[in-house]
Amino acid sequence: MLPGFLRRERIVAGPGFNRWLIPPAALAVHLSIGQVYATSVYRSTLQEEFAASETAIGFIFSIAIVMLGLSSFAMGTWVDRNGPRAAMALSMVFWVSGFLVGALGIASAQLWLVYLGYGVLGGIGLGIGYISPVSTLIKWFPDRPGLATGMAIMGFGGGALVASPLSGRLLSLYDGDFDPSSADSVASSGALVSLFLTLAVVYAIFMSFGAFIVRVPADDWKPAGFDPEQARKSDMISTASVTASNALKTPQFWLLWVVLFCNVTAGIGILEQASGLIQDAFSSVTPAAAAGFVGLLSIANMAGRFVWSTTSDKIGRKPTYMLYLGGGAILYALFATVGSSSIVVFLLLAVLMLSFYGGGFATIPAYLRDLFGTLQVGAIHGRLLTAWSAAGVAGPLILNGILDLTGAVTIALFVMVGLLAVGFLANLMVKPVDSKWHEPETDPALKGSNA
Q: Residue 385: which of 244, 283, 208, 269 has the closest Cα?
């Protein structure tokens, strides 16, 4: 049972509500949970505090990403049924609890508590928070679903751009000897505990703000002048709906699972080794300049989520993924063969590759909406995000494994080319969902779950 102010029926928007208030609500949540990409700021402190290897500390991030996929899978239907305010609030509770338990683990020198806190509890908050605004945004923007989801998911990609400098400044405030501009500087464990507690408070405020202002449209609401039938630009856009349980029985769901897995695996492989890649290719690049390159890739990741997802509203979701995967395979091949010929070529290829990686995340909810309708698109999206969890493990394993065996990054890049080619073929096979999986529009039981 939910408190009254969290229930879906309490947040149905009245006449005249401005739908452009919904993206800021989504951004408040996604910018907060996007902090998960900023853990490198204090990785050295964790290694020193626990006398642990990079692998042991990196496991914290891996747990969080795995839990993101598992919780989004398990909670997707609950999120659709209970609405975005309850989901955002629950996400906030888990995400903030992750920082609090993680701080306790650091203070008591118990690494398992950091795994439990930031990894497990924080990861659950990640999964619920990531999918919480998706179906709501799609229902508020049926005329521009790519634009809507791109705005929100852009926030997740940009969360690290806010959290990284903020964390560095706070650590230097709590530890006067820490220099965030120096790669050799290590903050004290006490400063890291204070940072975790501060972030818990900051994110609790921001995510509560998002939950407070979010609303769902009335069942009969639609944008002025919007005609669902006229909005169909191709047979790939359906006006019917499919439940989450039935979506799992369709080949379209599993083809998109492969598409997302391949796109994410390739991108994570580059992100994992970004600093080392540019320093190996160009001996003149300093560690500080390499850190700037990592920041540039974060911007490309974030911008791609908005630009390419918005573009998909014009050219269609399937052609957009043909660009991500087919064009991406060409870019990776060029990166492996001529990328080191010029730093300008290297940067241009890397930026385009990471923009496709980010765009893949932002466009997938609109692709799901096109194929399966809006009825339980949040739940379907949650189930599909298990591909992200799998890629979060597979990407670094493939790249690091090949580097350990051969020391040749070129081989690893061509493996990524092969993965993208597999994803391209899977996307090519996507067709409209068979009408036997469509739900009757007049079914009142299903209509009531349209959150």
A: 244
CB atoms within 10 A of CB 74: 14
**Interatomic CA distance for residues 195 and 188, integer angstroms:** 11
More confident of the two residues 200 and 158: 200
Whether 419 contacts 390, CB under 8 Å: no
Specify whether the CB–CB gap between 193 and 100 falls below 8 A.
Answer: no
Instruction: Write phi, then psi, for 230 (nearest 5 degrees).
Output: -70, -25
Residue type, 79: V
| 151 Cβ contact list (under 8 Å, min separation 6) | 23, 26, 27, 137, 306
pLDDT digits (tens, 9 = 90+) for 81-121: 999 999 999 999 999 999 999 999 999 999 999 999 999 99
Of 346, 343, 310, 308, which is closest to residue 327 (Cα–Cα)? 308
Reduce the DSSP state of residue 216 to 3 states and report it.
Answer: strand
For 139-148, what is the mean pLDDT? 91
Distance CA 100, CA 121 (A): 10
